[in-house]
Amino acid sequence: MDDHFLWDLIRESWIKIEASFDPAIKPIVAESELNIREWMLIFAAMTFEPEDTTPSHLLVRGPYTSSDQYLTRLENAADKGYLENKSNNHFRLSDKGRESVTNFIKVARETMEAASLLEEPDARNLANLLECLVKNSLENPPPPNTWSINLSYKLMPAKEPALPYIEQAISSLSAYRDDAHLASWQSSGLSAIALESLTLIWRGQVSSVGQLTEKLSFRGHPDKMYYDALAELREHEYISGFQNVLRVTEEGKLFRDRVEASTDHFFFAPWTCLNADEKEQMAEILKKF
Question: What angle (nearest 5°) sits at the alpha carbon of residue 161, between those of residues 157 and 167?
Fold first, then answer.
């Protein structure tokens, strides 16, 4: 069983699980008057405890967004009563925020369990197999560091009922893939903005400065930062072309391909805890979603 294929099945199943509870939790988010990115910071604040939540904390897993943008979102959540700004932009969950997050999790997990997407024996077996992957990822020596997966694992529920456990286990694996991705390129010295710009050009999603700044406007960086990022990429000979005709060079493609290969190498290393038969069993269960 190819690990990439199995991970694709896991992600497809995650989408199906999320679809089962999405209608139930949408009203909770809507009533909060927070946008989805602000709402996710409420979750982050819970996982960072007992530490405060700061833009610096958020930049560890999400270095592509500006510190000022993170601060604006935190302040907006505080203005609506979900966070408290304790001092010097150190935020903590308010009572209102904790109640909202706890209710969100409760409703989501009760709804996905009621959906009965898997028969009980299959759900229990899948939970056990995912537990192996998650725990082996947590215990795997760096690289990568386990910052993101450790935070996600704080929200792990009991194994019974199985479906909420499965959902959070997949979320934890996704967090570990973020850890793996960060480890795959940060040692290169390339800035986060340059890496994300290169990725979009490499994927063929943008081919001009205008498209790049428009697509990434939610990151909160001034346009000048992207001109600087493109200059950085040109200095490394990773891109060529003019502002309206940006292209990845052969060297840039090789670099970005290496980043992807390193991400896979780090991410899949802990999957040796499952043998071939167990991976086949997992795939058969996942297909039942």
Answer: 55
